[in-house]
Amino acid sequence: MTFSEATIQDLVKEHYGLNVSVKALNGYDELNFLLSNEKNEKYILKVSNESHPFSFLEAQISIIQHLKKSSISDCFQHFSINKQGEELTKIVKGSKVYYIRILNFLEGTFWVDEKDKTSELHHNLGSFLGKMDHALQDFSHPAMHRSYTWDISRASEAGDNLKHILNHEKRRIAGYFLLQFDTEVLPQIHRLRHAYIHNDANDYNVLVQENRINGLIDFGDMVYTALINNLAIACTYAMLDEEDPLGVAAAIVAGYHKAYALTEQELDLLYYLIAGRLCISVTQSAYNASLDSNNEHHFITEKPALDLLYKLIQINPIKAQDTFRKACGFTGLINEDDYSDLLEVRKKKIGRNLSIGYKDKLKIVKGALQYLYDDKGRTFVDCVNNPSHVGHCHPVIVRKMQKQIATLNTNTRYLNDAITEYAEKLTATLPEKLSVCYFVNSGSEANDLAIRMSRHFTKQKDIIVLDHAYHGTSTVAMEMSPYKFDSKGGSGQMPWIHKAINPDLYRGQYKYGDTNAGQKYAADVQRIIEDLKKENKAPAVFICETLLGVGGQIPLPDNYLKTAYEYVRAAGGVCIADEVQVGFGRIGDHFWGFELQNVVPDIVVLGKPIGNGHPLAAVIVTEEIADAFNNGLEYFNTFGGNPVSMTTGLAVLDVIQEEEMQQHALEVGNHLINGLKGLMTKHPIISDVRGHGLFIGAEMVKDRTTMEPAVPEIDIVVEKLKANGYLLSTDGPLHNVLKIKPPMPFSKQNADEMVRLLDIALSEL
How many C-alpha atoms does 12 have within 13 Å on its Cβ side? Predict the structure, then answer.
């Protein structure tokens, strides 16, 4: 559309008989001009193209004429009549038809420019919208029944434009909220009240004067849709750039409800509808950017909308629902009980020794990437849940799982493309000789199978493990886990299990700075081999985590595995790398932990992160070991390798690579380690900070000389952090190491906040 100011001036003179000065204004999808006459009276002229057909422009006239009869009629623009006595003036330019309309100018400050937005003003905005929607109860127009991008009820369609958001974190958060929209809103939206609504009470359309709403302009987005969407849009834009966005929304909701009563069902969906509107906004901005648009209106809300999405994901949806309900006088949703009834049932019906974390128990009801929500409305940053490797409810993973489980899940006796595709993609991340996959359901099962294969291959039984190691909960895995068999209630050490000393550069015999510490610690593996020789035995296997988990979050010293592997292989044994807690890019420097040691194991065991919390694990071996295991005895696993698990595994791999999570882990991990080392210089209780990427341990002692473990101090710190919304845990043989293994979306902002809160907690000890 090209209409110059001079052209508009002539058209106004010709069709309206008015002499005016003209100034072009910005607009989203229409041309807008400010008109002024000799009396300094101002008008707005709009030029519409075929995107707003005649019938829809007629609807705008009808809705405003309807609202003229309401108590808030002065808050809407009125149309000027042309020489033919009509509100719309048809203009033909070449083959195209345009319509001109002139509206009176409303005085006031745009909401976006109002500096002092009080709670009273927010309440008044809600009240104004409630009165408008109440007045429109008996209004209808067929042109408003249309398919429209900016109708929140159609937010799911914004998923088509997610790909245009190039920043991984921003795309992931928008994708998460669109997933929640499909999960929480779509099944219910058809049951909600529907109405003819303005649909765009944004911060550039709402006018304010003397702490009251003075006007609402631009009916170009109106649509027939769920009534609550009108309120959701107003809340969305009013929440932008606010320190307490939920408090702002609650005041608007209260004002609306007083003027036009809302239902509990509508209120319970409002949080997700607000998020849905934001997702439409940010995906449209990204789409317009992909078209190289230079219209500033296409991007005007992009940054504040993204900022609000970041704030929204930190607000527990139950807290939002509870807040909105209470704002309208309904009963809230927050659970106030102490879980005594639930704990009693659990005590009776669940195994007594299934532990529960934290002194004051948590009931987690929802997860969102690196966040967890409980039923009391609290939000927690998850710093320890490494099975949810790429984030709780990662939208890409969930959608692919949903589609597959709705299509097929069966056992592995049938041909299926997913299992071979996954095996190829997974082995492509590993050294060439590790080429054959066996899929199982858990890390424990994987370690069990790996030991069985090793014993079959070597014809030996004895196993060398590290002291304090943990490899799972199956019988065999428990037998080779000193962390379990040496603990209270443990079965004790079996004669075929042999413990090598922990290669701990902080507490062990060989310390930081000893360049030969790795070889010196590996000598203890050789000692065991020599002792076995005296009994005419040899090790079947040496199994070792590539960074030690429950052993204390310990990176192995240089050359430890290289030397130990040489000793074991020389004795005819097999070397297993346990990557259950470590692998899939978590350490940042490499994709796999064993790569830090410049070795290639004979068997790699994978679990936890492989399925992002879905029960999936794998054993990957050499051709030689696989051939030996194929001895005529069938290996069958009902669920290992099922289509849903394989689709999940593929999705996890794709997300790690497409979202560059390994690099993210490196950058955020280094940032967090530096922050923790800064605390170490300030607080002597932190005596060692170690790790790689997002696999980090911080050891705490009462005294750096005696190295006495800081227990119960560390437990107090963990509880203090939990009270402030950060979930940490402890590890290590002495239970004095802070364990930090968050989901990979964990950000630098999360890291900084965690360090700040840890500083406060340590200062209060």
Answer: 27
